[in-house]
Input
Amino acid sequence: MNAFRLRGGRVIDPARNLDAVGDVCVLDGKIVSDLSGEYVDVPCEGLVVAPGFVELHSHLPCPAEDGQAALAGGFTAVVHTPVDSVATLLHQRGFFQSDGPRVLQSGSASVSLHGTQLTDMGSLLGAGARVLSQDREWVSSSSVLRNMLQYASGFGATVFLRAGDATLEVGPVREGEVSTLLGMSGTPPQAEAIGVWRLAMLADLTGAQVHITHIWSAMGVQALRCAQRQGIGVTGSTTAFHLTQDPLSIGETYSGHWRTTPPLGDAVDRAALVDGLRDGTLVAVAADHRPMTPSEQERPLELAASGSVMFSVAAALCFDALGAADAVRVLTSGPASVVGLRATLAPASPANIAVINPAGDWRFKMAESLASQRNTPLDGVMLRAKVISVFREGKPLRGAGLDPMGLAGKLHSIGDHI
Amino acid sequence: MRHFVGLRHIQKERLQHLIDVACEYRRQVAEGHDLTHVLSGRAVALMFVEASTRTRFSFEMACNRLGAHPLAFNAASSSTTKGETLLDTARVLRQVGADVIVVRHKCVGAPQQLAQTLGLPIVSAGDGPNEHPTQALLDLVTLHDHFSTFKGLRVGVVGDVRHSRVARSLCFGLKKLGADVVVAGPGPLCTPDLMALGATHQHKLDDVIGQVDALMMLRIQRERLGGSMLASEAEYRTFWGLTDARSAHMQDHAIVLHPAPMNRGVEIDDVVADGPRSVIFDQMKNGVFARMAVLNDVMGQS
Output
């Protein structure tokens, strides 16, 4: 028996259009409308109670550590890096931990993501790949891209693609004032707008379900909005890093940890991402967690591999940028709709729950993160919102500092009885 | 810990002081003073991960004049080719006893990264297209010799401004000291973004030649010719070359600088490079004194 009630929190459940103070009851791993008999009562006044977050694209090179980092950040379902073959897909599955988040696998849309030769998409999907993906890699030939989408469309699969035109996307920051002040080569936002239109046109031509990831620029958001207004069913998302980080901060250190793909935009771009998330042009914010070893990233910025470990801060960055209601939407029902999941607190749903203190005022310390690597430029940053408790199918995550409500002692925790 | 990694964030007073110290060293050397006591016994690692001859010789000479030992570093035969990170290579130099590291690297921000983490004074000898602050300092010393003030001075910078660390550092320095900068060059090499540096933007050399007190003619890199950025040397010379005929349109007192090495007959004609307006060889000489001033500055002596 594992019964508890999260009492008196602000329950935000965008899938049901719900945002009100109330209780969430859990019995044996499922949400229930009411409890009788013995149960643990957990006061949640002043806290936000939301469905567990859904992550659209992250790397879990060490599934145990990075999986725990995902859970600690509130993510109870994570779409994993794409792989090329059914054999690799099945092999990869053996490493997922039963006490980790739900991992959704993805298949590469082209061999080695090179964008030249199609993979066995049908077999990958049949073996359990949830989506097809080019990760961050560019498909240079529009004709290959067209065939890729046409083929995927036959299987009804969603394809994740990034929009940036690689021939224009040559610098790690936006071209203009930012790149000039930093002395770095820049990328014009037109690189993304061209790419968005190209993907939208070919999605329309082939009938494929295209989801554009990593949108970073105002021009990219506007291009996507125009395409959607024309009735083209293409969806889009950005990342927590691109939504919130100012590239001028790079100039303080020129640390390789600042390396991102795509580049970081300026204040206008970040404001446009917020607008796009509010009006629904963009449906999700991804954490885009990418652990890198020191030898890959502690290098001059231009030689550094791109990406950061993000699970610990992604949700907090979203809350701070968007406010609780919009943040929960773009972390739960939004991404869930892209991968065909339901993320809700409706009765009978699996009890995947994140509890957030919207005024946690905490300092992020990389040393305390559970991730397999430490590559982030955000070590020491102050954040407001804090994920304080996470439940996967009714079981709380335990561990030092991750259970301030002391639930692990009262309930069966994740990992107790595997 | 004092570093010298760029002019973008340097304080005006420190920059002014460095110019004065460089001029003072030049006077003392000209009068035959021995300055080898100044940094006697200190070791200066010259970590030139990107190739250089002039800048490196200039730093070596600056070390010798002040009594410091230059530790030469050859990127081709060093462990950087074996995959050692830049930071680890620098740590090795620190552990063998270097008191300061002078670094040149093809990547933007490499000196700033070392300054952040190493715990030794770092001097930049150029980081990619970002900054080349000791070159800018020697340019400023040279301009100071001729005009004694920067207030109201108008300097034209012509050529591949976009990829030039020399131009960028010079812009930052001149703006700090109150001078005006106008940049000109072919579209892909001199974009309007450069106004973010505080410079005015023009297109052709003829648009700026009559209104400046000094012209910095940047080297045009031959690898950029014939690609998608620039057609030919002849085309470049037609619009941006400082030819003998064109130099006649300069103001009488105006001078010509060039960071060298020169493409004679492309961005600058022989007659101009070797003519009365040219201070190009003074620049090279001032480079040693500028670097002496910087080494002394970061090693905490006056």
The longest helix of chain B spans residues 12-30.
